[in-house]
Structures are given as structure tokens and as C-alpha cells.
Write a structure and sequence with these properties.
This protein has helices spanning 3-44, 50-78. It has two helices and no strands. The chain is elongated and about 55 Å long. The chain is an all-alpha fold.
Length: 83
């Protein structure tokens, strides 16, 4: 491997780590928004207790996030040529 290829590989690895961190921050922000919105809507709109609201929000948030991860895995395994 030449020095130029090695430098390019190191740069792409550093870029991957930076975007990986940004993606995890986006996942955390998305999870927080979904959870918070569910708690507030379930408590105020439905008139449920805070305990019920947190339980509902946890169920919806886990379902949403896990559903997104499963969809990403399915798309990754399917490949670009499969429609």
C-alpha cells in the first residue's frame, strides 16, 4: 500500500467516526422528541396519569426506534439492485 492510499484510508476513517457521532446525536435527539411528545400528548390530550403517559411514551419510542433500525437492516441486506 502506498503512502497516498494509507493517508486516504486514514482520512476516510476519521470522517466515518465524525459522521457516526453526528448520527448518534441525531438518533438521541429523535428519540427525545418522540418520547417527550408522546408523554405530553398522552397526559394532556387523553387526561391520563404521568405514570401511564411515561409507559405509553416508552412503548411508542422503543417501537419507533427499533422499527427504524430493522428497516435499515432490511434495506442494507437487500442491496441496491433489489426492488
Amino acid at each position: 500500500m502506498t503512502d497516498r492510499q494509507r493517508a486516504s484510508d486514514e482520512a476516510s476513517t476519521a470522517l466515518w467516526h465524525r459522521y457516526r457521532f453526528v448520527r448518534w446525536l441525531a438518533v438521541l435527539a429523535y428519540t427525545g422528541v418522540v418520547f417527550g411528545l408522546c408523554v405530553v400528548v398522552w397526559h394532556w390530550a387523553r387526561g391520563k396519569s404521568w405514570d401511564d403517559s411515561f409507559s405509553f411514551a416508552l412503548t411508542v419510542t422503543v417501537s419507533t426506534v427499533v422499527g427504524q433500525w430493522i428497516a435499515a437492516v432490511i434495506l442494507r441486506r437487500a442491496g441496491r439492485g433489489d426492488d
